[in-house]
Design a protein that fits this description.
By secondary structure, this protein is mostly helical. The chain has one domain. It starts with 6 loop residues before the first strand and ends with a helix. A two-stranded antiparallel sheet has the order 1-2.
Amino acid sequence: MASKGFTINERSKFNRFAIEPKVYVDETPRIGFTKYGEKLNGRLAMIAFVLLIAVEVITGHGLIAWLTSL
């Protein structure tokens, strides 16, 4: 019976809550020069590049001209 997650207590009743689920802890570091940090940096750079191209198409001016006109 214990293989299905059930046990029988001292009163011969089923105890469905005897086996606790295993806890998963992600030990991957999230700061510094890690794969996660490099992927995030690359993705944000790609988004910024596309947004700069969109600003240039919408305004008709390049980034430097757009910044100097403010």
